[in-house]
Amino acid sequence: MQNIDVREILKDKKNIFEIGLQIWADNPPANTPETIWNSMVYSMKVGGKRLRPVLCLASAELFGVSNGDVMPMALALEMVHTASLIHDDLPAMDDDDLRRGKPTNHVVYGEAMAILAGDALLCHAFEYPMVHLNLPPERIIAAISCFAKALGPYGMCGGQVWDMEGKESPENISALKTGQLIRASVVTGAILAGATVEDQNKIDLYGSALGTAFQIADDILDVIGTEEQMGKSIGKDQSQGKRTFVSVYGLDGARTLLNKYTDLGISHLSGFGDKASFLIALSKYLEHRTM
Amino acid sequence: MQNIDVREILKDKKNIFEIGLQIWADNPPANTPETIWNSMVYSMKVGGKRLRPVLCLASAELFGVSNGDVMPMALALEMVHTASLIHDDLPAMDDDDLRRGKPTNHVVYGEAMAILAGDALLCHAFEYPMVHLNLPPERIIAAISCFAKALGPYGMCGGQVWDMEGKESPENISALKTGQLIRASVVTGAILAGATVEDQNKIDLYGSALGTAFQIADDILDVIGTEEQMGKSIGKDQSQGKRTFVSVYGLDGARTLLNKYTDLGISHLSGFGDKASFLIALSKYLEHRTM
Fold first, then answer.
1. pLDDT of residue B157
2. What CATH class does B6-288 carry?
3. Where along chain B do its domains lie?
4. Which residues form a coiled coil (chains A, B) (predicted)?
5. What ipTM does this complex have?
6. How far out from the chain centre does Cα B161 lie?
7. Closest-CA residue in chain B for A126?
8. A5 touches chain B (CB under 8 A)
């Protein structure tokens, strides 16, 4: 594998995404009420790792399609992630006042607007790529179908329910709650770039394992991280008695699993050679954050 | 125009839709948490006029495509309408305990689940037609794009914001809040049925006028209707000081406008002859409910 500077590429990709985000934010569609747009943009611009869009850009690039060509999909992935955070933070859900070190959406804009801004981001996330992607229609339908499946009752929203109920295993909860959208981030990139079904499947297996690894790392950091590092309230899972990888397997057990899922994900990329260097390095980087 | 029994056709179309709904409800996708599916199905089955799906089925039929072929789109229209009602009824929004004579979603399933069930219905509404429509991909992309535009920041969600803020004219508020989805109901039907762009435009103009007429009728019924007739709390707009057609133009003024928009809508269907009989009769039927 090529020796690459993952932080540098991550920064570059994030910067490319931030440019796309800024162009989107500066161009509200005609007839959009200013307040809802401001509320949507506020949460989209609060920041974060931009992991999902970066994964989509990197996956498309692996199959030879440029970042610009899949930017509408990358933006859509961040829109639904942001929508889920806005709704998660509501008083009726996790009741969080702080997200990435800034006041949460409902603290700034009120609860009713936060509900509507989340709804609007969800809907806009389907419109935006469908209108702005300039690729063959079959690829667009396949990508948006994959995206939509990752979000609904047996995707992200269903995972939130299992997370609340705390009965399922951490593997099952995280597969829906976080895993599906991370998986969709790389798979939509591959689909839009015209990858073969065989290659899409490899990327799918990589994404599924990465999604689990990501959730394990998040659970570990909720215990060992600082609020500054995480940009959100920490120790919350524990105080809410949630079933996390750490609460079920202990810190050492979770670290062992994290290593297992990281390696499993990487194993599915072996056929792509140097072209997969960044995705491989990114998986290792996410693992090492917890050490 | 043909002399038709609008109530009879309306009942038939509604029955056809209810069959599609039941099949959907009985077949949750694998890996769906039971509680979120129950919560989604509860609100989908509470009932109502099923106006949006009926409009979609009727519009497709006008262009020679059968009800079954567009059923996934009809279901999607009802899903987003239902999602908007679930979120509207939340304590942070309109705080309603009763919808169509039954306890609202959050009263039965709790606020957190109601937020997630609404989110899941929104996302599922994009997946379901994309996966289940068996029509040319260009039509599907065009229909889903039209659908998505009707919902987001300059559609239904944006309209809710203008409704809360109470500064815009009733025409502007209703064009987004109710109008866009009603418009999309007939336009998606026409697009999926392969109507020419010229015919899509006529249907679009019909749908826009019908959407405004529908909101005017709703505002009138909020004042003169009974709770039993409406199946929801009435007099609420007035007590919340909302800008409705009645509060701005008075009851007589609103009735005049209702007549104007009903006739305007119908005028755009003149080129379709007898095939448009049901849509024309439906417009008149909705107007006469308020007399």
1. 96
2. mainly alpha
3. 6-288
4. none
5. 0.94
6. 18
7. B148
8. no
Cα separation, B69 vs B73, whole angstroms = 9
Q: Output the six-digit token pair for B207.
A: 């749908």
B229 at A interface, C-beta within 8 A: no
Q: What is the pLDDT of residues B123-171, one digit of tens each?
A: 999 999 999 999 999 999 999 999 999 999 999 999 999 999 999 999 9
Mutation site for A-interface testing, chosen from B79, B93, B94, B116 by largest number of A Cβ within 10 Å: B116
Q: What is the DSSP letter of A232?
A: B
Which residues of chain A from 246 to 275 reach within 8 Å of chain B, CB to CB? Answer: none
Using the predicted structure, report yes or no on whether residue B180 has a pLDDT greater than 80. yes
Angle (deg, nearest 10), helices A6-25 and A67-88 = 80
Each residue of B233-274: pLDDT tens digit? 666 666 677 889 999 999 999 999 999 999 999 999 999 999
Q: How confident is the model at residue B227 (pLDDT cuts 50, 70, 90)?
A: low
Task: Give the percent of chain B with pLDDT over 90.
Answer: 88
pLDDT digits (tens, 9 = 90+) for A233-251: 666 666 677 889 999 999 9
Give chain B positions within 8 Å (CB) of A153. 28-29, 32-33, 36-37, 40, 120, 124
Helix axes A111-132, A34-44, angle to 10 degrees: 80
Q: How many CA atoms lie within 13 A of B207 on its CB side?
A: 29
Is B124's Cβ below 8 Å from some Cβ in A?
A: yes
How confident is the model over B185-223, as pLDDT tens digits? 999 999 999 999 999 999 999 999 999 999 999 999 988
**CA-based nearest residue to A117, from B152, B78, B113:** B152
**Closest approach of chain B CAs to the CA of A17, in angstroms?**
22
- How many CB atoms are located within 10 Å of the residue A211 CB? 27
Tell me the C-alpha to C-alpha distance, in Å, between residue A206 and each of A120, A134, A222, A262, A272: 31, 26, 24, 9, 12
Beta bridge partners of B98: B103
pLDDT tens digit sequence for A202-218: 999 999 999 999 999 99
* CB-CB neighbors (< 8 A) of B188 in chain A: none
Q: Do B127 and A116 touch (CB under 8 A)?
A: no
Exposure class string for B122-152: b at 16+ Cβ within 10 A, else e: bbbbbbbbbeebebebebbbbbbbbbbbbbb
> What CA–CA distance (Å, rounded) separates A282 from B9?
59
Query: Closest to B138 (Cβ–Cβ): which among A116, A137, A152?
Result: A137
